[in-house]
Amino acid sequence: MGEDGLIPRLGNMKALLGILAGAGASYGLYKLLRGGDAEINKGSPRKSNAMAVQPGSLMAKVSGFNVVSKTDSGNLTTEIASSEILSKSPGSLEPRHLSMLLSLLQSSPSPAERREVLITLGNAAAFTVNQDLLREFGGLHIIAGFLSDPSPDVRVQTLNALSNLSMNIRNQEQLKIYVPSVVQLIEMSPVNSDVQLAALRLLTNLTVTDNHQHLLKNSITLLLSLLVVSNEVLQIQVLKVLVNLSSNPDMMDDIVQAQAPASLVLLFDGCTSTDVLLRLLFFVGNLRAWRPSAQVAEALRRRQDSLYCVLLDSSSQFHSRLPLLLSHPDEEIKAQVARLLT
């Protein structure tokens, strides 16, 4: 589904603390349209084989590490081993453990250790009390500092930890300054990479409310372009962000004016994944709730590459493709198509 010129532009977490539980998280059950999309990230399984760090690949081997080392009277060394922390469930970590982890994160020269700590912090951040503690310890900015880590795997775990931390409105106020860096990671990372997926998950959480959606008004074209060149998993994540943004009337002018690939209309097809197609239809439903003045509509028609022309204008191929979806086997798809045709 790619387009010439788009791919070059776009081309440049054993959960350590157990299974991530929803109890204690501030919010984050999946919602479509109502309240927007939000996500909680789980730590990824620890890999057993070492791998070289390549674009789009994950570092696979993680070694044990010490959290704190202290010497008493010059000869007695007391170590609080990593197992003391890593054997605890995410909700039972004490403030001192979180502080130790933040200190280790800043001091570790090992990408594997940084990755390990970030997974632990990310799992702990699924609980509201830890979200607040990490903010009070200055942990949000400490963690965000690893968005530019040389290791792609560390960047992924940084984004995952920030995603869980962003399930907290007060945390979002601090994290909003990193939106440009997150967008840059999406643009510069390989298409369909884990970095792109984790970055989009963070943006999904940051756009659940209207508070910070305006920070993405210049990134609509990037999202639309990624939509036509990425795989199903990434397409779904892109659409979660776009559905969130298009639920805000104040964002609509920026969305419809954004440059959009002509091939976007080709996604409205029975061969498109049901999950992707359904979200596309919700996105269009939000767009069609917008009513431009005659003067604005005429100005948009003169921009043949605008999203307005590609999907909304009377001359768009979308209008001839939409009725064909009434024969789709999925009932929810058919119901949404019927609503759009009325």
What does this structure look like?
This protein is mostly helical. Helix content is 50%, strand content 4%. It has 18 helices and two strands. The chain has helices spanning 6-11, 82-86, 95-107, 111-124, 128-136, 139-144, 152-165, 169-175, 179-188, 194-206, 220-229, 232-246, 252-257, 274-288, 294-301, 307-312, 318-321, 331-341; strands spanning 66-72, 76-81. The protein has a two-stranded antiparallel sheet with strand order 1-2. It is elongated. The model is unreliable at 1-35 and 44-81 (pLDDT under 50).
Please provide a brief summary of the model.
The protein is mostly helical and 342 residues long. It is built from 18 helices and two strands.
